[in-house]
Design goal:
Strand content: under 5%
Largest sheet: none
Shape: rod-shaped
Order of helices and strands: HHHH
Structural class: mainly alpha
Length: 124
Amino acid sequence: MMGGLAQRLFSQQLFQPLADALLTPTETAVLWGLHHPYWLGAIAILMVIGLQVGVSLAGQLVRRILKEIGRSPFSLGRWLFHKTTVRDPSPDQKLETILNRLNSLQEEQASLLAEFREQLSDRE
């Protein structure tokens, strides 16, 4: 009994490098899968789920990219519109503008009154 065990160990140690050299990693994986069918089924299910998740994520990424490409002209236009529009002036600027207009109106009124008086004096 002991001799058979030693012979098997010796033959496995002797031929294992030869078997490793002859079998490709794919063949090794296939043989492992044939010897472990439950693990093979679990791995196959996980690979299908992973593939489905990967395809779903890629689809969402493509959809978001296309949506942003479609929106980009509108976003650019909105950004340009906000950049070129006149912002509301501060209250001090508003008061200064109003005072300037009132002064110009007062000067125009004074000139119109002077012209009106000339016209009245020419009439008399």
